[in-house]
């Protein structure tokens, strides 16, 4: 059986949202939903495969903002509170469904079971830090972990400021080392945003490979006959793993597997469907309806009339889709093989982790089936990771990769758009001012050091790619604008005070309490001069 | 990222949204009326929801993930000593950012000090503000220049990059009535690469297997290119060559 290597990469990311000054903060639910429906169930699935001695390999990246939130005691406690609250809702739902909506009872029980299992494992197995579970899988060779940029900044938008790119990369790697206890070989460029020249900075920090989009290779100035089916190298030795958009697209597309009518409808949630009086304790104040995770309907069609979700049917389909995915990889492998000489093709397939379980409810079972099928004896697919793949061979073609990203259009169209391009005037200025401060006040101690370190945090947070993305998508746009402005305004407090050689201690104490990210940060990274 | 597909929302959800948006009689309206009313209102709002029904229905967006779109959100309180963000900075500079292989985005500012100096010298300078785009062919170093007229109140512009394999730089200029030109600031240069296959299309034409193997990787399952710049150019060139045969 011909072999096709599959480099399956899951990228987990959440923007840094942490507001302890509020009892509950709406956008913090993003994190809790993802832990509840994606990260913990994925971890459970991986560990169950390991227990069954299924040898699988895939890669994962946790963004530094997500890592920071996952280890934050305030957010950890809030996740437990979230589970406790939803447990109460689950019990109430079982009572309601038994009486009024028996068709939903099994799913209500399933959701309650998910919450209870998560709560138990979160407290007793992981002691509230789920990263330890992924770290263990990494140590056993199942999962290869990649580092990423500090705040998921779209790096090509900052190519004019190598010092800012350098800071994003350094802090990303420091966060990785702190939580996983080892140096990363691979680096996830946020949104796979590559620009010519970034490889110099990556190499300085010991990074040996990056996943990129198809365009990085296809639109290179150099001829590359192997396309995206073999890694390539930059002139300074960084290996690129270009992804195959077409195969990814079987999942991640308008008509992809998750859109099948048998799968669970994401939008129909009792948080919106049930009477306000009933649901009020489980939504946000003042009567802001939100998703609760209790969803009983199948996608069915685009209209409001939905069929009840049939779990058995959906599971059968997930199995079928996993087999179809493998079939398509095999078929594509046959198509591209003539251009690869004697080598087997390499398929790099990248996905957002939160797609699985949270958004695509059956996604975890689909992935499990994909892993199981790929480990069968006659499978045309072999799961691998970049390091495992590079172990045998490292002399790949050297090319000059092109500016590219994995988002719509393949370049920077989403990130530098009429809806969001205004932000760069501010974020670029913030970077310039941070460099100025670190030049004027190097190696400060005590209060000034804390003040400048907080400024460095705010600069990195303002660079987060989430804000321009949300503005582009017109989704939570006002929230994104506020977050962005707040980080820049906070930075400006330091800038204006330091220009007068003063420290605003009241601000500092409050800012440190709110934006606790990167406790180890040293603002002197913005004073780093080198030949990039 | 999740955008709400309005067509999938239940009547209860639609009524909830309608109530939030202050639509009268929301509790007696049927689904169609609710969708119409909400579409009218939310399409022109600052966009907590994507309610473009055609878009929502056609793209379905189930494949996109991550953040739920919350209808209401909290705004974090300002910390003590924080001042509102200024619109523009008191400096004279211009920045150029590459958006794709055809377009770049330029933003600039002219400081009050520079403006007053110019006015002092000759007020007509500020009547004629323009961007001078310099394009240099990377192979033969030939340079061409074109100007984009802007007003003194403009602060940003999308710059067309007509040629692959060229390096572009933009200068922020003013010119007085006597024709005296001053370059106030100059951007860093950006280089638009020349993708190999755009100048070697014949090699692809002779090898359809290679063409397929390479470019199928950016074609979606229903046959759409995930690129609007290079592939269409390649296809046009291939079609033109075929026509000449």
How would you describe the overall organization of this protein?
The complex is a heterodimer of chains A (532) and B (245). Chain A has 532 residues and is α/β, with parallel strands linked by helices. Chain A contains 19 helices and nine strands. Chain A has helices at 29-51, 64-70, 73-100, 105-125, 131-139, 162-180, 198-204, 215-218, 245-248, 270-273, 276-279, 311-336, 363-374, 386-392, 423-440, 446-462, 466-473, 477-499, 505-514; strands at 4-12, 58-62, 143-148, 187-188, 209-212, 232-233, 239-242, 346-352, 381-384. In chain A, the strands form two sheets. In chain A, strands 1, 2, 3, 4, 8 and 9 form a six-stranded parallel sheet that branches. The longest helix of chain A has 28 residues, at 73-100. Chain A starts with a strand and ends in an 18-residue tail after the last helix. The mean pLDDT of chain A is 94. By secondary structure, chain B is an alpha+beta fold. Helix content of chain B is 29%, strand content 22%. Chain B has eight helices and eight strands; from the N terminus they run αααββαββββββαααα. The two termini of chain B are 48 Å apart. Chains A and B meet through helix 1, helix 12, helix 15, helix 17 and helix 18 of A and helix 1, helix 3, strand 1, strand 2 and helix 7 of B.
